[in-house]
Amino acid sequence: MFVLTDDQAWNLLDNRERYPFLETPNLDKLAGEGVVFENSFVTTSLCSPSRASFLTGCYAHRHGVFINTYRDPLPEVPTVGQILQESGYATAFIGKWHMEKHADPRPGFDYWLSFKGQGEYINPELNENGMAFRAQGYMTDILTDYAIKWIRQDREKPFCLFLWHKAVHAPFTPAPRDSGAFADAKIFEYDNWYDTMEGKPEWLRRGWTYGVHNQVWKDSEGKPVPDRIIPRPWDQQNPKWMNYLRAMLAVDSSYGRINSALENLGIIDETAIIYSSDNGFFLGSHQRGDKRLMYEESIRIPLIIRYPELFSPGTTEEGYILNVDIAPTLLDLAGLPPSEQMQGRSLLPLVRDDDALIWRKSFMYEYFQESYAPGLVTMIGVRNEQCKYIHFPDLANDIDELYDLIKDPGEMHNLILDPDYQEILNIMKTELQDLKEKSDYHKPIIKE
Description:
By secondary structure, the protein is α/β, with parallel strands linked by helices. The chain has two domains: 2-183 and 235-360, Alkaline Phosphatase, subunit A; 363-438, 2-Layer Sandwich (Arylsulfatase, C-terminal domain). Helix content is 26%, strand content 16%. It has twelve helices and 14 strands. The chain has a ten-stranded mixed beta sheet, with helices on both faces. The protein has a four-stranded antiparallel beta sheet with strand order 11-12-13-14, covered by helices on one side. A hairpin with a 2-residue loop joins strand 12 (379-384) and strand 13. Helix 5 runs parallel beside helix 8 (239-264). The protein is globular and about 65 Å long. It starts with a strand and ends in a 10-residue tail after the last helix.
């Protein structure tokens, strides 16, 4: 079973110093009974490309879902649902698909319940196996109801269920019962909230000053861009962030109900449960509330796997994990080999502590510019245990970014022009080029 949230900040559940009021007992229980992967990342921090990467085990430049609501994965790139279904599994997809612009069933799933695009939190329009209808209630609860109903069906086949939530994507809307939760709570400020962007690429400050979308970005061409921006003051009770956190309460309740259903059926320990998010979320870091950029808050994701037969309960794993690793892991759990297209790796050898295993020490990130937000530029980068290098291939008259993650975990000081880091920069450039070649990287032509 694969439970996926949307835009969930990677450290939301274990950051009790910042969010002591956010109680998630069911997800805490999941973490205590499974393995928490401390260094998990997406290869593209954007809903549609990342979801396709989870399904196919491929980077966006291979599976073809380069930007949001563009298309489904290319026909020659099979999804894990298709492979499992063909191998005798009962498969179901319930929740947010958010790729091609329709809600009809996709190949690879015996049961389908989804919606078009982002969907709605309250009384959403849904599509069940090709039939559209309007449900009554709150989206997270509704999806959970259908998931439990499907789990309880009598079947002889093994099953794989994808429960992919809309929560906690904007517009942040908690369940009505949670709308008044932690009314007096305060969020402690982030150290890297006060990012002036001084010494960083000019396009970042231009977008902050004038806006990144369509006409405002075009209108800002040639206008003066400040060398630094003046950060806004921190708001400890920002209503937008509070509703984001309140929306997590229904996600926690959802997992509690799923766990109880599996326990009541006596199959909780026979069921591999994966919990993650399609990308990270800034939630105020760097004066931002989105994702897309290659900063840590954007690319890091939560990842918990519960399956006591293979994953030791109550443990952590420090290896670098990518969203492209989940599909081959699901197939490995089913005793199946990965498809030829898959670029990720099964996590099973890693959690078995094979001394001979050589695991990745770095990874490549890619993001492709969307026409509606030209102020967020195409980027490609590499992150390793010490540094991060971010390159903007379409910008000839701006600078790249380089960060020492050991000395500057908040990524506040761009070292791209620092003479003391030029040797490291050259190493990072070489490493990025190697990863591009190994992944058959190519910049796509996107026809929107």
